[in-house]
UniProtKB/TrEMBL annotation:
InterPro entries membership: Bact_HTH_transcr_reg (IPR050679), Tscrpt_reg_HTH_GntR (IPR000524), WH-like_DNA-bd_sf (IPR036388), WH_DNA-bd_sf (IPR036390)
SUPFAM superfamilies reported for this sequence: Winged helix' DNA-binding domain
Any one GO biological process: negative regulation of DNA-templated transcription
Name of the protein in its database record: DNA-binding GntR family transcriptional regulator
Length: 84
């Protein structure tokens, strides 16, 4: 599921990198590839998967949490929200 996704990120385009990560993860949620309760990789793993900095992933996860798409449980991980 979480193969190399560097090709999905346009480092030279107008969209911010974190917004591209958000859009990619939201697309997986909408398509059902990530179901409610699914655990996302760690920030460090996502940074490697997308070929971006950890801070970029941190911003993306924060945005996904603000949108209600994921729930961050300190010490346990980030999970797809049940309300999708």
């Amino acid at each position: 599921m979480w193969e190399d996704r560097r090709g999905r990120i346009d480092h030279d385009g107008p969209a911010t990198l974190w917004a591209q990560v958000v859009a990619d993860i939201e697309a997986d949620i909408a398509a059902g590839a990530l179901s409610a309760g699914s655990r996302l990789p760690t920030e460090l793993e996502l940074a490697e998967i997308y070929g971006v900095a950890r801070g970029t992933v941190r911003r993306a996860v924060a945005d996904l949490a603000e949108r209600g798409a994921v729930v961050v449980v300190h010490g346990r991980g980030t999970f797809v929200a049940n309300n999708r």
